[in-house]
């Protein structure tokens, strides 16, 4: 929307509100290094971080098994394949 000059459009206002709402609970610190036009993230921390090393580790016994990833990928791919199929139909109809 922005590159086409629609900053004041209802769609852009909607997006700004969505982004603002999604960031209400975000707190923390990010350490950056800026050098010759490049930005490097040196570290980040947040008291509300959802990252838990014990939950994502395959070495820690819990409710997650490596085979679960395959199921998750398969289930997620169903909606993505259907989205692509529907988008292809829309594109084909528009080209006719």
From TrEMBL:
Coiled coil: none annotated. Its EC number is 6.3.4.5. InterPro entries: Arginosuc_syn_C (IPR048268), Arginosuc_synth (IPR001518), AS_cat/multimer_dom_body (IPR024074). The keyword Cell cycle does not apply. Keywords: Amino-acid biosynthesis, Arginine biosynthesis, ATP-binding, Ligase, Nucleotide-binding. SUPFAM superfamilies: Argininosuccinate synthetase, C-terminal domain. Pathway: Amino-acid biosynthesis; L-arginine biosynthesis; L-arginine from L-ornithine and carbamoyl phosphate: step 2/3. GO terms for molecular function: argininosuccinate synthase activity; ATP binding. The keyword Amino-acid biosynthesis applies. GO terms for cellular component: cytoplasm. This is argininosuccinate synthase. It comes from Steatornis caripensis (Oilbird).
